[in-house]
Amino acid sequence: MSTGARVVKTWAPLVPFAAWMFVFLGIPTIAVCIGAFQKESGGFTMSNVNQATSGVYLVGFENSLKLGIIEAIVPAIAGTFIAYAIHTSRGSLLRRSLVTLSGVFANFGGVPLAFLFIAAIGGETALVSNWLRDIGIDLYAHNITIYTFGGVALVYMYFQIPLMVLVILPAFEGLKNSWHEAAEGLGARSWEYWRYVGVPVLMPSILGSALLLFGSSLSAYATAEALTAGSIALTPIQIGSFLNGNVLAGQENIGKALALGLVVIIAVTMTLYVVLQRRASRWLR
Amino acid sequence: MSVGIGVAGTLGRSDPLQVIQESRSPGGSRLSGRGGWRSLRVWRLVVLALAGLYFLVPLWAAFRFSLNYVGPGFSDQAYTQLTAQQGFSTAIWLSVQLAIVTTIVELAIMVPTTIYIHLRLPRLKRVMDFVTALPIVVPPVVLILGVLQVAPNRLKSTPFLLALEYVVLAVPFSYRALDAGVRSLDLQTLVDASRSLGGGWLTTMRRVLMPNMRVAILSATVLTVALVLGEFTMASLDLQQTFPTWIVVFDQTNAHVSVAASLMALLLTWVVLIGISFFGGARGKSGGPR
Amino acid sequence: MTALSRPDDLSVMASGSTDGTWGDGLPGASHGGTSVALRDLSCVFGTVRALDGFSIDIAPGELLALLGPSGCGKTTALRILAGFESASTGQVVVDGQDIQSVPAQKRNMGMVFQSYSLFPNMTVIENVAFGLRLRKVSNSDRKGKAMSLLEMVELADRANRYPHQLSGGQQQRVALARALAIEPRVLLLDEPLSALDAKVRVQLRDQIRALQRRLSITTLFVTHDQDEALSMADRVAVMRAGKLEQVASPAELYDEPQTPFVAEFVGTMNRLPGKLTGQGKVVVLGREVVARGPFSAGMPGTEVDVMVRPEALVLVPVHGANGIVTAVTFRGAQSRVEVLLWADVSVKVDVPSAEATTLALGMSVDVSLALDDVLVDAKRDRLAVQPEGA
C-alpha cells in the first residue's frame, strides 16, 4: 500500500469526529473571531475591539475574571476534599451514588439553579433567611442578598464543585496504595505522606482541573442572567444582550469582539491545561 | 459511574487476599493503627456533611416552595397539574426529540472514535483529552453567536440545529465515559482475537466490543440526555421552546410550577443515572470498573 | 555518619564511620541482629480466615522465606509484621517486645513491595533519601548516604532519574536501597520479583541475597515461586490456608517433606500405589521400604500413595518389564521421562539426557526405587489433575 493510501487509511476513521468538531465548534468560533474585526458595512476595523475593552465592557471583563478566579480556587479546594471523601468511602453503593450525584449537579445550572437559591435565601419567604432570622441574624438588614456578585459566586459553586469532583476523582485512583504504605514504612506520618508525595503528585491534576473550572465559570451564562438580569456586568451576559437585540445599530459586532476576548482568555487557559496534563499523566500512570 | 472511576487492576497480584484488602479500602490509603482509621472517618463525615448541607438545603427550600402552590400551607398541585400546564407537553416532546437525535449522533461518532484512538493512535490520547475538553470551556454564548452567524437559513429555522450543537457540548462527558470503559478492556487482545476468528470490523464492534462497553455506553447516553434536557443558554438564545426554556418562560405565569418542574427533572435524571449504575454493577464486569 | 534518631522511635542507634560510607554501621553487626517471632497469629477478613494460629521464628540475620500458594496468608503475615494489618489474636514479638501496639511508622522495618512503590514525583536519590529526610538528617548527609546505598545496588549513575525512566528491575533495586537507608532492623520483601521478567528475576535474586548476607539483616521474604524460596532462603516456611505446614532449610524441605502438601508443592512428586505392612513399612514397586509421614501408621494392608521424586526412581530399558515409555521431555542436563506402569499409574523419572536419547516411545522399561524410606500419603484418585512442580 502506498504511503498516501496508508496515511488516508490511518486517519480516515477520525474524520467524522474531527469534521464534526470543526464544523460545529471550530467554524462558529472562527466566524465570531473574524466578525469581531468587521464593520457592519464590510471591511475591517479595530473599533469593535477597542470598544469591547473599555467602559462597561472592561468592567465586565474584570468581573468575569474575578469571578473565574474565585470559582477556580474555592471549588478546586472544596472539590478535592469532597472527591477524597468519596474516594475513601466504603461501600460502593455510596460511592457510586455520590459520583452520579456529582454528574447530575455538574450539569445543573441556569434558571432552575437560580430558583433553588432564591427559594433558599433570595426573598423574604426564603427558607434559610427565615432560619437565620429565627436565630437572630437578619440578612436583609445587612443587605446581604444573592443578587450580588457574592451571591452569584455562591450559586456558581453548585455546579463548579461537582464538576471538580468529577474531574479530579480519577486522579485519586492513580494514587497507589503502595506509596502510602511505603511512606508509612519509612516512618512518615499521614500529613508527611500528603506533603511529600500525595499532594505533589496530585498537584498537576488539581491545577489542571482548576483551569477547567476557570474556563467553565467564564462561559456560564444562564445562572447569572437569571439572578441578576444584567445588573452586574459580566461578559457572557453582555454578549447575550447583543443576541437579544438590546443593542444600538452599528454596534452589533462589539458582541463578537467581546466573544473574541473570551476566546483569547480561554485559549491561554487551555494551553496551560495541556502542559499540566502532560505532567499529571506521567506520574499517575 | 464510568466517568469517575478508574481501573483497579489485579495485575501482578498473585495473592487474592491482597485483592480483598484493596477492595476493602478501595484505593484509599491503608492507614494503620487505630488512631489513623478513626480520624479519617471523622474527617470524611465532616466533609460530606458540610457538602450535603450546601447542596441539599437549597433543594429542600425549593421543594417547600413548590408545595406552596395554592398559597401558604402545602399542596401537591404543582406536581399533579404539571403535565396539564400550557406548553409543557410540546416543550418536553421537543427536548426528548433533541435528546434522541443528539444521543444517536453522539454515540455513532464517539464510540468508534474512542475505540479507534485507543487501538491505533494511542499517542493521540492527549490530543483527544484536550480537544474533548474544549466544549467545556467554550462559552455556549459564543458558540450560538457564531452558529447564528454562519448557519444556512434552512438549518436555522429548525430546532435540530440545536441537536447538532448539543453533540459537541456533550463530547467532554461522553468521551470520558467511553474512555473509561475502553480502558478497562484489553482492547488489542479482544480485537485480535475476534479478527483472527474471522470477524470483520463491523462484527467485532457490534458483537465483541460494544457488549463489553455496555455500562460505558449507557453512562455516555445518560450524560448526553442529561445535558440536552438541561441546556438553556443556546436554546433560549436560539429562541427555541425546549423544556428548560419553557420552565423559565412559565415562571412568569406560575413560579411554583416552574420550580416543581425543575425539581422533577433533577430527580428523574438522578434516578435514571443511579439505575444505570446499578444495572451496570449488577451485570458485573461488562465494561465497568473491575 | 550521625546516628539516626526520631524522638519516639524504637530504632536502634547505628554507630559508624564518619566518611559517609556504610562502614561499621551495619544493622546486624553492631547489635547482633534482630530476632522476630510471630506467635499464634490469627486474622480474619470477613468470612475469610487469612491466618489460623500461625507461628514462626526468624533468627537474627536469617533470611526466611514464606512460601505458599495464593491465598495461603503469607502476605497477610508479612503485613501484620509491618503494621499494615492487625491480627485478631496472637503476638508479634521483635527483640523480645510485643510490637502490636506500635504503629507502622515507628516500627523501623524496611519494606519492598511487589511493584510501583517508588514515589513518582521524586528522583531516585530523593526516593532513597526519603526516610532519612523524615528523620531530619541534613541534606548533605542524607544525599551522601543515599549515594552509598545506590552504589551498593549499582545504580549510582541513575541517581537523578525519575522512577518512570527506570526498568522494573532497576526500580526494585532502588526500592531496596530506599528500604535499607533507614537502617531497619528487619527487612520485609513482599514478592518483590513477581512482576519482573524471568531473567531479571534471577539476577536480582542473587543481588538481594548477597546484599542481605553482607548486611546480616533479619529478612522475611514472601513468594509463591519455590525456585526463589529454595535458592535464596536460609530456611523456608511452607504455608497453606493460613497455617504453617513445615519450616526447614531448603534441602531438608526438598528431601524430607513432612506432609504430602509440602512434598507436592516443592518440586515434583510421583504417586505410586503401595500397601502398608503395619510395621512402619510399605510395599511399593515390588520392594518393602520404611514408611514416613502422618499416614505411615495404619492398619496392615491399607492401600496408600507412596510419594517419590523423579530423581529417586531408576529406569532401565528391559524387555517385558513393568513400564512403557509414553513421553520424553528434554530439560537441559536432565530429561523427564513419563512411564506408564500399569492401568492408571503414570510416573515421571528424571534421566540424564545422554541416556534419554536412547529411549523411544513405547519402549519397555523397568522402573525401580532407589530409596530405602519414603513418604506415604492417603490414597487419592490418581486421575485427578496434579500440580506440576518445578
Description:
With 285 residues, chain A is mostly helical. Chain A has helices at residues 3-11, 15-35, 47-52, 55-87, 92-106, 110-122, 127-134, 149-173, 177-185, 190-219, 222-228, 235-243, 252-283. Helix content of chain A is 76%, strand content 0%. With 290 residues, chain B is mainly alpha-helical. By secondary structure, chain C is α+β, with helices and mostly antiparallel strands. The longest helix of chain C has 18 residues, at 198-215. The interface between A and C is medium-sized, with 21 and 34 residues.
Summarize the structure.
Chain A is mostly helical and 285 residues long. Chain A has helices at 3-11, 15-35, 47-52, 55-87, 92-106, 110-122, 127-134, 149-173, 177-185, 190-219, 222-228, 235-243, 252-283. Chain A has two domains: 16-45, no CATH class; 56-110 and 157-281, MetI-like (MetI-like fold, Orthogonal Bundle), CATH 1.10.3720.10.
Topology summary:
The complex is a heterotrimer of chains A (285), B (290) and C (390).
Chain A lengths: L2 H9 L3 H21 L11 H6 L2 H33 L4 H15 L3 H13 L4 H8 L14 H25 L3 H9 L4 H30 L2 H7 L6 H9 L8 H32 L2
Helix pairs in contact in A: 2-13, 4-8, 4-10, 5-8, 6-7, 6-11, 8-10, 9-10, 10-13, 12-13
Chain B lengths: L15 H9 L8 H34 L10 H4 L7 H33 L4 H13 L2 H11 L2 H4 L3 H24 L3 H10 L4 H12 L1 H17 L2 H5 L5 H11 L1 H28 L8
Chain C lengths: L26 H5 L4 E10 L2 E11 L4 E5 L6 H9 L6 E6 L2 E2 L10 E4 L11 H11 L4 H14 L15 H14 L4 E5 L7 H18 L2 E6 L2 H7 L2 E6 L2 E6 L1 H6 L4 H6 L4 E7 L4 E4 L2 E6 L10 E6 L4 E5 L5 E9 L2 E9 L2 E8 H4 L7 E6 L3 E6 L12
Parallel strand pairs in C: 3-8, 3-9, 6-7, 7-8, 13-20
Antiparallel strand pairs in C: 1-2, 1-4, 4-5, 9-10, 11-12, 11-14, 12-13, 14-20, 15-19, 16-17, 16-19, 17-18
Helix pairs in contact in C: 3-4, 3-5, 4-5
Structure keywords:
heterotrimer, A: 285 residues, mainly alpha, MetI-like fold, 13 helices, flat, B: 290 residues, 0% strand, globular, disordered N terminus, disordered C terminus
Q: Count interface residues per chain for the largest interface.
A: A-B, 99 and 98 residues
Q: What's the number of extended β-strand segments of chain B?
A: 0
Name the overall outline of chain B: globular
Major sheet details of chain C: 6 strands, mixed
What spatial form of chain C do the alpha-carbon principal axes imply? elongated
What order do the SSEs of chain C take from the amino end to the carboxyl end, as H and E?
Answer: HEEEHEEEHHHEHEHEEHHEEEEEEEEHEE
What is the rounded Rg of chain B? Answer: 23 Å
Oligomer: heterotrimer
Number of helices of chain C: 10
Nearest-integer average pLDDT of chain C: 85
Tell me the radius of gyration of chain C: 25 Å
Counting helices, strands and paired strands, the structural category of chain C is alpha+beta
Beta-strand percentage range of chain B: under 5%
Task: Bin the helical content of chain B.
Answer: over 70%
Our measurement of the CA-to-CA distance between the termini of chain C, rounded to an integer number of angstroms, reads 46 Å
